[in-house]
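The record is kept unedited without comment:

——
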Amino acid sequence: MARNAASISPTAHYTGYTWFAHGMSHPALVTPQGRLMHGALRPLHSLAMLTGAPTLQAFLLARHRLIDLLLTQAIREGRVSQVIEVAAGLSPRGWRFKQAHGDKLHYIEADLPDMAQRKRDLLQQADLLRQRHEVVTLDALADTGPASLSALADRLDPHQGTAIITEGLVNYFDTPTVVAMWQRFGRVLNRFPDGLYLSDIHLHNANKGAGVQAFKAVLSTFVKGRVFLHFDNEVQAETELRHAGFALAELHDPTRFAGQLGMTMHPGANAVRVVEARTNKPTFKG
């Protein structure tokens, strides 16, 4: 059975502090829980770095920065001017992208009620919310209703390219739930002239070996539940995304973008893949 989405939100505290510790977030988005969790896991992280074992931070940073890169490219190319970040948690992406693109970008951070309220309060208290930057309640598993993605999309400009982002979400749900979620995303994004879906995902073929299995066990304990690996390889996931309504789908290994990202890829970075799926095929001018 799929996990209750509410059980995922505690991980937002740890990831929120991770972004801050690496210069990507604002102090307002640091919580005492995140600082405590980050400190508690620091000895384990240090031991893994010494032994060459995969670390949580390696794949967290790799996926976050690659999603940022792909979203930046889409905005600069004029394909996207509206973003919905589903299960945004304490991600600093909305704040950073609004700083970079201003009123040209409509950025919506969405999460379950408690997390959305906490994020909204933190941003407002630090005077970080700007025009066309919202934090709203969303149930990513709902097909209809006021908290559904479809209802949220009704408020957007139907003539503007739109992106949906899920980071740190899909591997905490079983395969049928994820497939239904992708279908939901595909239906919504096909309502816009350009639709882009960005996400992270873990696959069986990139998560083998004793060290990785031990890493998965630690991660499962950390998120208080099972971590699901839905597909054996990239091709299977890409095929499922096309079935969900995306014209193009590609899974990227972050380590191949080390140069573009200007970062050292530590062990664990290649345990994650970043999904880039588009509802419209690009046109090429001859």
About this structure: The chain has ten helices and seven strands.
